[in-house]
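INFO batch 0412 | record 1 of 1 | parsing
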Amino acid sequence: MTLPVKRIFVFATIVFFAACTQGKYAATNKVYNKQIKAYAKLLLEYPVHDSSGLPYAPEWVGTTNFSLRHPSYVIIHHTAQNSCEQTLRTFTLSRTQVSSHYVICRDGTVYHMLNDLLRGHHAGAGKWGKLTDMNSCSIGIEIDNNGNEPFSDKQMNSLLLLLGRLKRTFNIPQPNFIGHLDWAPGRKVDPSRFFSWKTLADNDFGFWYDTTGVQVPENFNALQGLQLIGYNISKPASAILSYKIHFVPQDTTRVLNEADQKIISSLVKKYQ
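INFO prediction complete | emitting tokens
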């Protein structure tokens, strides 16, 4: 085994932790471990010698400057299911093809289901700014909530603690804590109108508005303002709905009024 491959093997062993193979989720944890080992084995196959016809150099020269791809966004969801157990089952069935890095139960218990450095299947199709592949650069957090009920204080406390650790560990910028509905307007509405984004913003996870003394610029286009924040406005009504659920949850309309002009103007200054 060459020295670079040994280094990769040790690196993979450290990063891809194994899950416990005893207890209630022993069977699915074995599947997780099997997949992790498959990824580690894939790393060990390099350097690659194939028949593509490329003029490969005779030696592999491994750079000393690399790292795993760290997440730069956090996407918050609600489960739209009725219990943590139901969600855990959904995320441990291969046929569902969906997953999340974390699940936060109603009592504040946090299940860590996927290594933070691995790609989860939680965001799906969408767009935020120029970004079109959120799964590759984000951590997904699912909060046990059916979408029609308040989020418990224990859930919010656990969420704030988790977000703090993620922000410190990966140096995630303050604007990059968003909801599934922000990423996928018209397709997703989670977390619901019951979720307190202001609580998160007060703790430096995302931004909130302050319209005190705000003077809306002449000819300000609020819809384009949403685009500057990050929203995909190709379907204006959907973008407005997502904005309303996030920032003005008591307003169920899909039109931008004078108050929205001030709010969006305030937000543009923060997000830019």
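INFO post-check: The domain at 73-202 is CATH 3.40.80.10 (Lysozyme-like).
INFO record closed
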